[in-house]
Amino acid sequence: MTDWHIPTQNVEVLTRAFSQYEVERIVPMLWGSLTNHRRHQYITNLKPIFEQANADGIGLLSPPPDFHAWLDAPLRTTLRGPNTAKANTISTRYYTLRTMYEHLIREDVITRNPALGYNVPPGERSSTPLPTSQEIEKLLAYLQKHDPLLFAAATLIHEHALQYTELERLTWSAFDFSQGLLLRNRTATRLSDRAIAAVQPLLSQAGGPLHTEDDSRKIFGFENRDAFRLPLWKACKNAGVGNISHRELRLCGLRDHPQHPQDLGFVNGQAWERARRHAAGLAQRLTGEE
Question: Is there a contact between 177 and 209 (Cβ–Cβ < 8 Å)?
Fold first, then answer.
């Protein structure tokens, strides 16, 4: 959170927490107000580093010159042993650590980021084939009949590749129904007829476009990712399809709807093309096409 600052009197408390390797106290002090899920995630990412630093007597506020070489062990170790962490786990731990140091610089606790320059392994690409278009349609048909709220959310994800964070923050004021547009973080998306139809029942419940034009209330109001993921998992089960995650639903959208990049939330055409090729590649693994 860029606008969060530690009260001056608490900087000494923060420094003491570092000397005692109390990551559970440090995370909320540096990141400010977090959901329980996000706080637990950051603590989990940093814990191996703090535990190893405590064991080795490494001061994380003023690490030694060979800090990057030392980082290899805590970043790459899991419960299965040394060098067992996958590339994405290593990256997640590292970027959380780097962000921690950026917060410390912001608070004038340190003057440079000792994590910068660490050689992070390239991220993994999933080789699991995507659900078929028929499976997606089967899920959407079930949701349309049984859960209008989840149907609208799933349709927006599939039609326009909404990220979960976009979905979570989405308000009625982001829609311009007179032009069929959705204002997103970096672009304006022209909504498909199917997306507009999926949102229509919720719009009617909210009072129609004249009453929602300046409405800043969240549309979906999911408390956390589980509040979205669990009902989606149950719907997949009831619809008779395999579990389809938000990520898979979004990738299927990139595969099934090769629209203009802006309509899928992309400003950079190259990034859109990479994402589209990745989704198409996963689909080919399912069908055995070359």
Answer: yes
